Amino acid sequence: MSIKDENTSTNSIFDIRKQKLDRLHKKGINPYPHNYKRTHNNSEAVALLDSLESQKTPSDSGEVTIAGRLMNIRNMGKVTFVDLQDLSGRIQVLLRKNLLSEQYDLIDDIDIGDWIGVTGDVIRTRRGEPSVEANNIVILCKSLRPLPEKWHGLTDTELRFRHRHLDLISNDSARQIAITRPRIISSMRRFLDGNGFIEVETPVLVPIAAGAMAKPFVTHHNQLHRDLYMRIATELYLKRLIVGGLEKVYEIGRVFRNEGVDLNHNPEFTMLECYEALSDYNDMMKMVENMMAHIAKEVLNTTEIQINGSDIDLNEPWPRLNLREQLIEHANVDFIECTDLKSLKARMDELKLDSSQQTGWSGLLDKLISDTVEPNLIRPSFLVDYPIEMSPLAKKCRSDERMVERFEGFISGMEICNSFTELNDPVDQRSRFENQEAMRASSGENNENEFDRLDEDFLIAIEQGMPPTAGLGMGIDRLTMILLNETSIREVILFPQLRPNQ
Predict the structure, then answer these.
(1) Where in the chain is the domain with CATH 3.30.930.10?
(2) What is the rounded distance in angstroms from the CA atom of residue 43 to the CA atom of residue 91?
(3) Residue 376 burial (C-beta neighbours within 10 Å; 0-12, 13-18, 19+)
(4) Which of 96, 197, 201, 203 is the most buried (most CB within 10 A)?
(5) Are 418 and 406 spatial neighbours (Cβ–Cβ below 8 Å)?
């Protein structure tokens, strides 16, 4: 069927349903009532039936009032079977002419996609199907447009994401993801709250897009007559709270980066950032291990998950893998020896890796890590100790000042978290920010986002004293992908950014 034919068909169905709507109004029926009081959802109705059947002397208290969307209609003359779907699942409803009397004629004016309310007894049919035998029905919402593809669900991935409401109606998997993601966040909150962290909120509109190396979205505040940026990180505000004496803080919120869209990236994403005074990155590694196991156990009832065909136990200790050693093993590159842009680029060319999009040494090394090391990190692992050039906000390693105490956590080859022993030396921090600004100035407009930005208010704050602190950033979207074995970030974000319709 062509798009034109499909639109014609939809318009025809719309007209027919509109006629049914008009008939309901003429009968004095309001097809859009203000509310409806149900006693059970569908799964509770099934549970009630199971409970009644288990009793030696069944009681007569099997009447329920349920509500949901019609997903199937099978008319047998004097009896009609319909499937009713709510958030908890589906249940069959029996509409009998002898029980409903004049209400049975409403069947002529209802369609798949309508919302109805039903009162009746829970029964089990001769085929063993849990059902509700209706003695009263109410139309709760008349649907004027048909559900997609004969109500078997959208198959075009792009259409699913553009019309998420239809995807949720017809796709059990999409509905389960939508239900489970908030449970993951709630479990994370319980873990952090239980460990003494305080949840806070920091600005989304900021005067300086600092705290990460990313291109920001720009907006303008009319009253203040100034440009502002959508935050690319919450880091610098949270560390100012550490300076203020809030020793354990966290925020779960949206972060915005004006960058590409792919299976692992969306321009707006949800991030946990947390900071703990008197701790270092070793403490954060332990916390990540414990938190991941806690969330999996609480949400999935197991720490053993499968990702892309690999069995993974989140309860096992995560190996600490030295970044320099991993690069030597997988790429035969020692970044201590390739300290300049030219030599690192030449080595990448030998490996036939595309280096055209990076103009800075840090960007090239990050690309090298992504292409050669990360794909091998299938089981939960920490890459530790990064070169200082890649991490202007991290504290130097105690054993080698060319490195910083930083780790990134990986599962199934995907980064899910990033952590530092935070730099709290104000002199060193100012020097590094100034160096970042100098490199940005010399890099050109197209490459300026490879460097962090100097935030004077943050520098003033840590000049007033920030205790030893460890920080952590964790992507909620990627965490959800891992726990639910999804390969695309668009599956776990209800409304991902999409390219315009052509």
Answers:
(1) 170-319+379-491
(2) 8
(3) middle
(4) 197
(5) yes
Rg of the chain's alpha carbons, rounded to an integer?
29
Residue 358 has a pLDDT of 73
Q: What are the pLDDT digits (tens) for 166-195?
A: 999 989 999 999 999 999 999 999 999 999
Q: What is the pTM of this model?
A: 0.91
3-state secondary structure of 289: helix
Q: Are 458 and 258 in contact (CB under 8 A)?
A: no
Mapped to the 3 state alphabet, what secondary structure does 432-447 carry?
Answer: HHHHHHHHHHHHCHHH
**Ranges of the chain whose pLDDT falls below 70:** 1-10, 57-60, 149-155, 444-450, 502
Q: Which of 377, 399, 284 is nearest to 326 (CA)?
A: 377
Q: Packing angle between helix 476-484 and helix 281-300, nearest 10 degrees?
A: 50
Q: Which one-letter amino acid corresponds to residue 13?
A: I
CB atoms within 10 A of CB 387: 19
Q: Where does CATH 2.40.50.140 sit in the chain? A: 3-146
Residue 26, φ and ψ in degrees, nearest 5: -65, -30
Chosen CATH of 170-319+379-491 out of 3.30.930.10, 3.40.1190.20, 3.20.20.10, 3.10.450.50: 3.30.930.10
In words, the CATH class of domain 3-146 is: mainly beta
Exposure class string for 438-475: b at 16+ Cβ within 10 A, else e: ebbeebeeebbbbbbbbbeebbebbeeebeebbbbbbb
Cα distances (Å, whole numbers) of residue 310 to 101, 480, 485: 57, 17, 10
Render pLDDT for 443-480 as a digit per residue (tens, 0 to 9).
766 666 667 788 999 999 999 999 999 999 999 999 99
Residue pair 93/40 in contact by the 8 Å Cβ criterion: no
Between β-strands 248-256 and 63-75, what pairing exists: parallel, antiparallel or unpaired? unpaired
**Each residue's pLDDT tens digit, 123-149:** 999 999 999 999 999 999 999 999 876
pLDDT tens, position by position, 378-401? 999 999 999 998 998 899 999 999
Q: Are the C-beta atoms of 344 and 361 separated by less than 8 Å?
A: yes
Cα(352)–Cα(364) distance, rounded to whole angstroms? 13
Please identify which residue in the block is written with the tokens 């699942």.
Answer: 89
